[in-house]
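To close the chapter, one final illustration. This time we ask the reader to focus less on the individual chains and more on the assembly as a whole: which components sit near each other, and how the overall shape emerges from the parts.
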Amino acid sequence: DIQMTQSPSSLSASVRDRVTITCRASQSIRKSLNWYQQKPGKAPKLLIYATSSLQSGVPSRFSGSGSGTDFTLTISSLQPEDFATYYCQETFTTLTFGGGTKVEIK
Amino acid sequence: QVQLAESGGGLVEPGGSLRLSCAASGFIFSDFYMTWIRQAPGKGLEWVSYISSRGSSIYYTDSVKGRFTISRDNAKNSLYLQMNSLRADDTAVYYCARVNAQLGVDIIDHWGQGTLVTVSS
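The assembled structure is written out below.
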């Protein structure tokens, strides 16, 4: 099975900071990589699909890149509502998630 | 609008069984793959199982193979997860979710509210 490794597991940042989260697959998943945001007590919300496509309604400060085994999620200017946990997910074989990255207020 | 409503969670002893159900509405259920995803308290998301639109293809994560069975009844717009030989590490909120395809990539575009399964003596 493909393993998905996210880093860091947590980070502290300030409003308007640029934030980058990485996700590494144990084997090539081409561009079959999604990103979700989850807030406490809520179901996850899709942000980015197919590595770099922005889901409808998601602010343009979110972007994704990568291919093969290495992927990144970037938040260009962190907003108060962006403090949450972010998960990558491969859909090349199954629907495996990465371990998550908690973005906290500095 | 799309709605997914899980039921069947609760407290069960180790080695016991539970059957989760998910009632779907607001879309043509038989057109979509469906999946179960769980989240242990304070932990990350874990994909558990998914089933094709007609039920002909089924996949499980390794930790539940041989213990859990996913199924669906398209006539009743319902998804199920039969969980046997439950262990403490199966304790989690279990989400029912819809799998959609965008640009040739599967996405999870709708989630239920989740149902809590607690395995404890």
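Residues 45 and 81 of chain A are 13 Å apart (CA to CA). The two ends of chain A are 36 Å apart (CA to CA). With these observations in hand, you are ready for the problems at the end of the chapter.
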